[in-house]
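Sequence in, structure out.
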Amino acid sequence: MNTNDFSRREMLGLVGSGAAALALPGCASTSGGLAPRGASVESFLDSVAAQLVALSPEGATSLGIDTGSRAALRSQLGDRSPKGQARIAALLRDALKAARRHDPASLPAEARTSLAVVESAFSVALDGFALPYGDVAVGGWRNTPYVVIQNVGGYIDTPRFLDGDHPVRDAADAEAYLARLAAFPAQLDGELARLKAAGRMGVIAPSFLLDKAIRQMTLARQDAASGGDLVQSLVRRTATIPGDWDRRARETVTGPVTAALGRQLDELKAQRARATDQAGMWARPRGDEWYAWGLRASTTTRRTPDEVHRMGLDQLALLHGRMDPILRKLGYTSGSVGERMTALGKDKRFHFSNDDKGRAEIIALMQSKIDFIRGKLPQAFRTLVRGNLEIRRLPPAEEPGAPGAYGGAGSIDGTVPGKIWLNLGSTDLHSKYSLPTLAFHEGIPGHVWQGEYANRLPLIRTLLAFNAYSEGWALYAETLGDELGAYDGDPVGQLGYLQSIAFRACRLVVDTGLHAKRWTREQAVDWFSTTNGSNVAEVAPEVDRYCSWPGQACGYKVGHSEILAQRDRARAALGPRYDLRDFNDAVVGGGNVPLDVLAQNVSRYIAAPTGR
């Protein structure tokens, strides 16, 4: 991410936002419950994975596993109500208790890692559920105190999921689409109950976030009132499938869906009347406690806000120290690094025209960089995955509240490709020198690439992910792009890469500044744009994102620094036996893990007889 990454990562984040029926008393089950006491660890982990899949029907579809015994999930949406949240927490408590009955010392390495992943993901999530408000992503990254806001909520997630991931290959798929449309109002009303409950506690989003959310939801409601994209997505894909799809979808969308969106909109407007412009969690009830948890969940460390803030400033100084001589060679000698990067960013040679021609050029440039890096990957990995990828524009209605881009891997079976979603509402969000590193981050060898390795692991490992690893790997992918020659003879391109990494160091400073040091939104935007020379049009929605996802932005640089530190450790320990391909295989092949488990995986790689 400059990222948010829907597709696979956001889909998995929905585990924390909704629950289907679980194997709990009084609830129907699609998964058969947890494995009984005495079962093998493999059977136990498989049963946990089955329960997690039942929590997110959308996730089952996005992974391509809503078939066979799970086929009913294709017609369902997750339950985002208070009752749904309680069911998730109950499952996690039962599963964690069962996990702790297994002795890790008696298990092979892969099973030990899987148990460690379950322990970390579930215990952190349960601490989040113990807080009185917010969304908790179980094995995901989108933790938020606000159930519905400019970048959170079913009004965004479900239409995008139905158009992007729900397949319509035959009449049964079309009927499943209609069933999900019919379930959409209840999903929205489940969120509404939690939105109202948070409001009664005084947990109201900042006014500037509510303004964005109200604008977006107004557009979403207007679109639904005319049928709009929710209807057209089905009609477009059923052109050769007999059936009265248009009328049936339109009745649901223009009626119950539009009404449910209206109810959420009314509540957002009511909360806006009570809102302030105070940006950080410090201004919310139990906000310091919530932020400490959010920072822990996102970094998989116990670093304090002060420690993270200082880390950001230190990392930024190092990166600007690398940028300064490059800028001087290009003739930019006056002012701070940020001021000189601002001047570089105003050079029209690096801009795209703000029209369809410019948008097409952006997509073409991204594709060319993906094509370039594919040819270099045998130098960095012994084990190669497919890199199944397409580049798409975000739905225009979503663009005002979205960052510049995000991406993630597709389905396990490869039928749904991974995606890089580009925000092309304004081409000013992108420059010719920033796009190459963005392609490596979101696509290959970043999120799409890493997700395909995860898809090869046992299902539990595909479902559970950690923000610091996910985003740390994506930043490391940018570093690999530089090391594999993407900017040879291109100093401006290398500045784009270094500015991208520095951007993530700035996030450490700004996120903690907002939520722990009482920065205002305006202060954060000004510091960020001035210090890093980033476009205000890019920075402003980024800052808004940090306000709605406290702590999430800190995972990137924390994870990136840890991967580089582990690489230095491996190189020092192995000496002439060190090989970049083996290290990368160990990190990406070990799966998405908390940072302490990453260190354990690297230790095993170092200790292996061949260093592989």
